[in-house]
Amino acid sequence: MRRSRLPVTVCLSLSALVLSACSGAGPGADLGTGAARSKAPASPSPSPSPSPSASSSAPSGVIPSADPAPSLPCTSTKGLDAPALTDYLKGLKSSDRTDSRALFLVDDGLYLRLVKTQPPCEPVPVKLGFFRVDMTRSADSAGYAFTYAPIRTTTVSVGPSDGRVDGSLPPAPSGCGGVLSVSYVGRDLVESDLPHSLRLPGKDSTLDWVLVDVDRDGVLDAVFKPPPGARDC
Q1: Whole-angstrom distance, CA of residue 184 vs CA of residue 11
Q2: How far does the signal peptide extend, from start to end residue (predicted)?
Q3: What's the mean per-residue pLDDT of the chain?
Q4: Which of the 8 DSSP states describes residue 186?
């Protein structure tokens, strides 16, 4: 009887083992299946291709910058020597002045008034010379004798923007001394460059200053403002 039971038991055990291996049942089958799942890469799900508008739009939270406003064409003055720079500055024209000059001196400083015409690409260095003009009546004529004394020389930056040039305000006349202001480029001015005579504003003039012609290369403009009581000097 014991002999007949042993083969049955072995057959049942082998059958159970075969069924376990085929069905994946049991602890060994669970670990093997779990490891296989963890090693197998997950197949990516297809993503929709971005639309042209979405791909060209700015990222969230970022404000796209506006296109720069169109600017006027400019002229570079880098590398110009004094004669060429003088010609350029004297050739600048303005659309709102009767004499059409865009760079000019008046009694309160140097101005650039291009008014939407071609500006320089960069600030242009221009020199300003200020001279005290002591006035005394000539003994042998009805006119005045003038004596110059330098006050200061400075270099200012002209352009590209319009307006009064920073640092160009001249000193005020005092006593019997007026002020001659000269804008120029190139070598510094010396007394021999200055005019030998000056005129005063007319009695009926609304201006208390006059333009002056300084005959020297590189001079751009000149203005003389006499003292308020010049006729009593």
Answers
A1: 120
A2: 1-21
A3: 77
A4: S
Would you give the distance in Å from CA 179 to the centre of its chain? 34
**Residue spans of alpha helices (H) in 24-164:** 27-39, 52-56, 82-91
Domain boundaries, the chain: 82-227
Contact 184, 220 (CB under 8 A): yes
User: In the numeric block, which tokens belong to residue 15?
Assistant: 């059958």
Structure tokens given for 197: 């005579």
pLDDT in tens, 35-70: 333 444 444 445 455 444 444 454 555 555 544 444
Q: Give percent of the chain above pLDDT 90.
A: 48
For 170-207, give the secondary structure using H, E and C. Answer: CCCCECCEEEEEEEECCCCCCHHHCCCCCCCCCCCCCC
Whole-model pTM: value is: 0.68
Provide the CB-side half-sphere exposure for 154 (13 A, CA).
17
Q: Mapping DSSP to helix (H, G, I), strand (E, B) and coil, where does residue 135 land?
A: strand
- CA torsion 20-21-27-32 (nearest 10°) is -160
Digit-coded pLDDT (tens) for 117-146: 788 999 999 999 999 999 888 776 667 888
Residue 91 φ then ψ, to 5°: -85, -5
